[in-house]
Design brief:
single chain, 106 residues, mainly alpha
């Protein structure tokens, strides 16, 4: 009896222990950004993971790409100093920052 109850409790909470998906990481980025706790290092880490996941899975939900673009635009508009630092570090580690980070290049 105890095991059966234990199993039903654990199955109810299973959703809290799943691996985060790209949408979760975008939501985390947005939450940290809106709380004004975003640093350039944290932004770089999260944006690299999100960008890599979106690039690897080209069949992702188009809404995710739109959210990602909106996130970049928010950072560019509200905290350009953070985006500048992210771009500098990104460029030093790779050939170039993603094109969507630059509104004036469109």
């Amino acid at each position: 009896m105890y095991n059966q109850n234990n199993m039903s409790i654990s199955s109810r909470y299973k959703k809290f222990f799943r691996a985060p998906v790209t949408a979760d990481k975008l939501a985390l980025f947005q939450s940290i950004f809106e709380a004004r706790e975003m640093t350039a290092h944290l932004a770089l880490a999260l944006l690299k993971v999100i960008h890599r996941e979106l690039s690897a899975n080209r069949n992702s939900d188009p809404i995710l790409y739109k959210r990602y673009a909106g996130t970049i635009e928010s950072v560019r508009h509200n905290t350009p100093d953070i985006l500048r630092e992210v771009v500098l570090v990104w460029n030093s580690q790779q050939s170039a920052a993603p094109e969507e980070w630059f509104a004036d290049r469109k």
